[in-house]
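User: Before I run my own analysis I want an independent prediction to cross-check against. Here's the chain; please return only the structure tokens and, at the end, one sentence I can use as a sanity check.
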Amino acid sequence: MGHLNKKAPKEKKPILIVTHPLSKNEREKLLADLKSKHPHIRVEFLGKDGSISDIPPDRLKATRYITGYNKFPEPEQVPALEFVQLSSAGVNHLWNLPLYKWRLDDVKWSSASGVHGPIIGEYVVMSILAHFHKYFSAVEGFQGKGAWPKDRVFMPIQKELYSKTVGIVGYGAIGRNVARLLTGFNVDIITLNSSKKHTPEERRQKEEFTVPGTGDIPGDIPVAWYSSADPSEKSKFFSESDAVVIAAPYTPATYHLVDSVSLKAMKKTAVIVNIARGELIDQDALVTALKNKEIGGAMLDVVTPEPYPKDGPLLTDFPDPDDRERLVLTPHISGHTEKYNERVLEILLENLGRLERGETLLNLIDRRKGY
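Assistant: Structure tokens:
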């Protein structure tokens, strides 16, 4: 009976905790890849309804790596933690998390920036084309009524994207792929960032995950680079754009980056597409601009709050069929690609290798800046 008094053996292998749900195939591939490239790492998976409390304390103490979205231990539970790989591109949902604010100079955090570069780029192009080509008017006027329009020639004239100017707010992995996709339409791309980018090195994409064949790593596509810190440059950016794409991270500095002044600077025919976070736009000012027809339209995949209430003005204040052309809402779906987890795990494995080699991580987050 003496064996009953023996202490449980201490966990010797460093542990990786995976807190976001993976399919059976995704789990098996991760285990195979780790066995091949990092055989010394042991993995703990949490199911969809699992919690950190399901993991024995000795294994939490041996945890060096975590990947997840919103399930995280308390700092004192993981004293050996070295690295967190997020499964999200943004970090604003973690601003008040104790672990996120812990050991800012010691524990490295990386985002999933770039995993949805292809699909969000396609969503943006689709949105701009649908607006310019009066897609919703055509559907309402023909299929919706079930009859060929009598005055087809007098239906709203479509606009060409050809030779227009598209302004991209935030020239990261998503913004750069939007630019690349739009080059085929012979448009001019301009971009607005938090600081001025003067040199080729400043315009080059930082160490971010990029799906092969996408993006603009050198930063060669934009014909003009503007700084949001300069009010005159910011105004010039909005006034020149026929379409504005919001692709910047949400941080305290970008809250209401698109305000009433920015909206008033836009062309009356311009459309704004937001695939970043709702908080980047002053939503009350946007509703006013749309009602007064101060801008051409808005295509919003993100709003505030989320979930959006059914009695919110974006849903209740635009009841006419013509309003469908000027305001289109989707429920934060633009990044829902079937490749999502596959790419997150690709970033994770690459970063584990970089950690071991002492190299700069992909998508490294500056937690003091919030992105």
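Sanity check: The chain is about 30% helix and 15% strand.
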